[in-house]
Design goal:
transmembrane helix; transport; mainly alpha; two-stranded antiparallel sheet; disordered N terminus; single chain; 4 strands; about 240 residues; 2 domains
């Protein structure tokens, strides 16, 4: 049977075909008495969104595999509003990892309240630095995309949708916590793989949202990394541990 169903009807262009990215007015039609029929795309003659029949776990697996169809389903054909909370939680994970590494480098076991307060401030500082780095990364992406394809980002809604896609595609940072909990000799390698996975997810989110080829999203991500590393160098010159 159909799994998690979005709204059955909408205005023209409210939904997208997950196969060809064509516009659709509905994902399925309800014939009453439990009889539902998935809509067929007029452009490619395939089901507009086969994922409305799938279990959320299957959709998540396909998203982890960075399938464009799964990304289109999540971004265009569902009403997911967890991007803000997900962003905060991912930043907390990253701040915790940095804070933990900072504590390991300064082996101070003094139980004094002042020391504990300083350690707590270090965590807030790491959260602020991680937030600024991610913000600069996103700004770099927006600048590069606006420079390369200004016609793609004409409306405010286009910026909002792309920002939502980027925030959702950073879910890979949640893997930072297990990587730290199950610490072993290969932890730095695991962290590197997590970083690469997040960048691949970001690239797929940009590609799906703006319907671009594979090269332009990576160019935008490269520019975002340059800006992010510029912020890191700035903090290092100020004498901060990042």
């Amino acid at each position: 049977g159909l799994g998690v169903l979005p709204r059955p009807m909408a205005a023209l262009g409210a939904y997208r075909c997950i196969e060809c990215n064509g516009e659709a007015t509905e994902l399925y039609r309800d014939y009453q008495r439990g009889v539902l029929r998935i809509s067929i795309c007029k452009s490619c003659q395939k089901p507009v969104d086969k994922y409305i029949e799938y279990d959320p776990v299957i959709i998540l697996i396909n998203a982890v595999l960075c399938k464009a169809q799964a990304y289109r389903h999540i971004l265009f054909n569902t009403k997911i509003n967890i991007h803000g909370k997900l962003c905060i939680f991912c930043l907390l994970c990253e701040a915790y990892l940095r804070w933990l590494q900072l504590q390991d480098s300064s082996q101070n076991t003094d139980p004094d309240d002042l020391i504990r307060y300083a350690k707590e401030w270090d965590f807030y500082r790491m959260f602020g630095i991680a937030s600024l780095e991610q913000t600069s990364f996103f700004i770099g992406i927006f600048i590069a995309l606006w420079w390369m394809t200004p016609e793609m980002l004409k409306r405010k809604s286009d910026f909002i949708l792309l920002l939502k896609a980027l925030l959702l595609s950073t879910y890979g940072k949640l893997l930072l916590i297990p990587a730290v909990i199950w610490e072993h000799d290969y932890t730095p390698l695991c962290l590197a793989f997590i970083k690469v996975f997040v960048l691949i997810s970001n690239s797929q989110a940009i590609r799906v949202t703006l319907n671009l080829n594979r090269i332009l999203p990576w160019f935008a991500i490269f520019f975002g990394l340059i800006l992010e590393n510029g912020v890191v160098c700035f903090f290092q010159k100020m004498g901060w541990d990042v």
